[in-house]
Batch of 2 targets.
Target 1
Amino acid sequence: MRISGVDLYAETAGAGEPVVVLHGGFCSLESLAPIAEALAAEYRVHAYERPGHGRSADIAGEYDYDRGVSDALAFLDAHGLADAHVVGYSDGAIIGLLLAMRRPERVRSLTAISANLDPLAYDQDPEVNGPILPPLPPLPPLPRGPRVDGATGAGAEEDRVSPERAAYERLSPDGAAHADAVWEKCVRLWTTEPHIDPADLAGVAVPTLVLAGDRDTVRPLHTLRIAAALPNARLGLVPGTTHGLVDEKPELVTALVRDFLAEVARR
């Protein structure tokens, strides 16, 4: 469908209250398929792939979260949705937070999975993470079972991006060789944005579920900071998972999202 002058791949399934699913950076909708498919049994699920992701062709220039918010609003308008429940992962969760801050009347509820407020969140900067707790070391990596290619342990975790690269190479209309260009633009985005003041989250009154992995690259202290700044938040740390929690424990993450939506839906 045509969004903000660009053709974007989109999917719609199910019936009921509207839910909009926002994928992460260097991801496709396939990464959130377990959640989207489960929700489609009870809700009308709308999803699209941002420029340069999945089956949507890339655009000239850099990525930024402001465009992500504008595209989300245009997507809602294109489907005639005055508002919707928003489920976002990583970059999609950041877009969801910004959308709820700037246009709260368009968001019924927000699920923010592995969001961050600032690039410094990855470095446990105390001014970003807040004075709630003193700086804490990350939990040690969990031992991992063998991958298909035989790799194990922490080294296998470092290669977690490989499934997404494989998906990009399979799905992208720009061809497999363009994956590096998209990855580099994503890295530039992640290292320069966002810059969200936790105090600004006080105005987000919609019910919000804040989820992350207990070994997420977005450290638990930062995730706690986000939830503490929101006036109507629920917080969940998924045990034994990293930033890839949706892929690592899809049944548990999906159950948490479904339970939250069952609580806040208007039915």
Target 2
Amino acid sequence: MIEMKVAGIALDAVTRSPIVLLRDFTERRALPIYIGNDQAKAIINAIENQAPPRPLTHDLLVNMLEAWGMTLERIVIHSLQDNTFYASLTVVQGDVKKEIDARPSDAIALALRTNCPIWVLEEVIADASIPVDRDADEAERQEFRDFISSLRPEDFTQRGKFSSEEAQ
């Protein structure tokens, strides 16, 4: 799993639909997730630390977690099926831990309000992320190619043979 952070909210240029953009901590990969308008507002409010005069849905859920002595340990965006992302909340109460299915947009809105980490499975990032720093990606690929081309067969042989006494 790779920990990600919310880079911001954008609008799709064609559909004008909101997109939450997650970015890894190396600033190398970004994961765009289309979300609804209400969830976009909830995420923006959390990013800007805006507290509504009365609790909205995500604030209410956080209040309920706190009232029942529960903490949101983490959220995980764990799959992408038919262009739909799936997430889960890990909620802890004492020594009891529960996984709860959630839409990624709602999970992100809750994570921002509770300062819990946002994790994404590598498979999801491989399938749906976009490169942020193409130059760094190409430099990494070239460095790997250079490493591979410098390998010799003897680099794979066992170093330091054991005597028969050491092997026993």
